[in-house]
Amino acid sequence: MAAYGGRGLHGQTVEALATMIFSGEYREGDGLDVAELQERLGVSSTALREAMKVLAAKGLIMARPKLGTFVRPRQDWNLLDGDVIRWKFAGRPDHGFLEDLHELRSIVEPSVARLAALRRTEEDLEALRAALGRMAEARGDAGAMVAADLAFHRALLTASGNELLERMDVVMGAGLAGRDRLVHGAQPGDDPVPSHLAVLTAIAEGDADAADGAMRELLAKAWGDLLRLWETPAGETA
């Protein structure tokens, strides 16, 4: 399912409800007090009901006739939904979730890099170079670094020439953005440009094995950065 793009009061209501769930205010199996939520959020019953439909479609809540609306068990949540991943990162995500995300990237992205080395077009290379240039210019600017990193990996998915892999952007993009905000926003990590340049160079040269290897090294470095952040007490820098 595509990431939710609602704005205005409707979007704010969806975000508020999701935050209550992912912060633990409402836990699995808890019932939602509709009247209390209406008053708390200052919205009509119609607005609240429409927002709940969004969360229900993502597997977070369900309505039971004559019983009310409840938070569904975690195993029912659509963890491949871009918004669900984003909401997970809104707080401090658990270590298991971060490890799952790293494993997913380790399975997908080396193969994507390999395909990109074999199928990339000049337009793909231009997009990758532009993203890398933005990354170099973004040193010291966490927000710009996150945007540049996302642009690079999205261009990489496109360069694979596989439409299904390209659609992984919804999952990979949300997860990567969350990971980047944790790392680049909390500590002055190592310069990411050299590892991304190694991937780009291998792809430009059409060397599939080198592209695969360079991506694995990039992901290992990214995981190491995340582990160092995770092991650093709040309020300190690594």
UniProtKB/TrEMBL annotation:
One MF term in the entry's GO annotations: DNA binding
Coiled-coil boundaries: none
Domain HTH gntR-type, chain residue ranges per copy: 7-74
SUPFAM superfamilies from the UniProt entry: GntR ligand-binding domain-like, Winged helix' DNA-binding domain
Keyword flag Transcription regulation: yes
Domain of life: Bacteria
Keyword Manganese belongs to the record: no
Keywords recorded for this protein, A-Z: DNA-binding, Transcription, Transcription regulation
Name used for this protein in its record: DNA-binding FadR family transcriptional regulator
Species name: Thermocatellispora tengchongensis
Taxonomic placement: Bacteria, Bacillati, Actinomycetota, Actinomycetes, Streptosporangiales
